Amino acid sequence: MHYIAEADLEKGVLPLHVEISPEEYQPELEKELRKTGRTLQIPGFRPGKVPRQLVLKQVGAELLRKILLNTSLQKLDARIREEKLSVIFEPIISGTNYLDAKPDEEKTYFFDFQVALFPDFELKWPEKGQFQLTVEPVTDDQVEAAYKARLYLAGHTVQMESIEGEGDVVQGYFFVSEDSEGSQPQRFSTAFGWGALRSEESQNFLKGKKSGDRIPAHPNDFFETPLEYVRIPQGMQEMLSQPGQNWVLEISQILRRVPAEPSADFFKKESGNDTLQTEEEFKEFLKQELVKRHQEEARYRAVQQIRDWLLNTYRERVPLPEKFIIRWMKAREENTQESKNWEEEFLKYKDNFIMEMVVERMAEELKISATSEEIQEDLDHYILNKLQRWGLLNVDQATFDQLRQKYRRDEKELSRARSRVIERKIMHHIFQIAVEQPSEQA
């Protein structure tokens, strides 16, 4: 392991030395040797009858290394608690002799750790009324669009012979033709509506095309965000930007949504209100839904303004131990084969690290914490959102419970959930103080 001299450590990084004597590890080693000897299978010996020296020779070094590492972390944790140190990230081992552990020799082993201390910085809070809550008004066009969307969603689907226009959904495959440079035979499924097409030119190009047609068409020419409509595996997505690729769209089927007929029964069902009878009443209901959505969007924008302000304010205030964090990131992925520019990787996550430090300090000052019920509720929402991103919308209760138990046993997931809960509480606190609301909503 690379050793970092104490004099070379950056500010905020503390070296801690741990030693483990034979008196500390030998009893545990003997216990593990007896336990392993009961199950170790070696030709010529019955189970449980393998001599101690043979067990020691076969697995002694591995057992000793495991014992030494666990003991070192326990002693380090005790030292941190004893000295009341507030640390961030996991410790890094910068020097040790435990990798050369010899179970038949009695010697003292050492671990040189580096721990990053919670950075010292002064809190700054936004001023009262510093941010504006701007709620966009609901227009008649938006209400009409919402009304049409409800009719289409409640309607039914019919199969079309050719693409006609609005309301059509095209299903099929994109693939690269055989005459392309370095062509590969993969086919990538696609499904898109008329409104997903990026331009009137692409709409006119597709109009009149039929099921079974194969037409030259690059996904980039059709969509602003091709990966939203074309299922290309992550490792192959660079194909979209490679030159010399002749893409083809094969149309499998064309579907059209036929809108439902507006009626009193339709209005009651869609609104969940038996008193709604007319189109005018239903549109007023949709308008109120849009008002609520616009309020939620305005709140989201205000929270983003708060977050941006916090980052801009604290980027220079929070002294992160950058070199330590880069070494920590490397150590976490030392067994992966992927080569990374770790300075760039650090910059990707720097803002997240800063926000974590700021939120933790603010929570400490405001005495904000997360209860176990809040953490578990957050995990449930997190699991549901993850399943939805995977396209699994109707997972049975048994599968969900299995995932829930898995996440609740994962200390890292619990820590992330706790951080999310506390950050939401911090944002709510700042929102109440620093966001000026329109007078009619105050």
Describe this structure in words.
This protein has 442 residues and is α+β, with helices and mostly antiparallel strands. The protein has 3 domains: 6-117, Alpha-Beta Plaits (2-Layer Sandwich); 156-258, Chitinase A, domain 3, CATH 3.10.50.30; 279-436, no CATH class. Helix content is 47%, strand content 15%. It contains 12 helices and 10 strands. Helix 7 packs across helix 9 (342-366). The radius of gyration is 31 Å and the shape is extended. It starts with 12 loop residues before the first strand and ends in a 6-residue tail after the last strand.
In helices, the fraction of residues equals 40-55%
N- and C-termini, Cα separation: 60 Å
Average pLDDT metric: 89
Kindly name the structural category: alpha+beta
Characterize the overall form. extended
**Proportion in β-strands:** 15-25%
Please compute the radius of gyration using only Cα atoms: 31 Å
Largest sheet: 5 strands, antiparallel
Number of domains: 3
- Uncertain runs are 1-5
Q: What is the total tally of β strands?
A: 10
Topology as a string of helices (H) and strands (E): EHHEEEHEEEHEHEHHHHHHHE
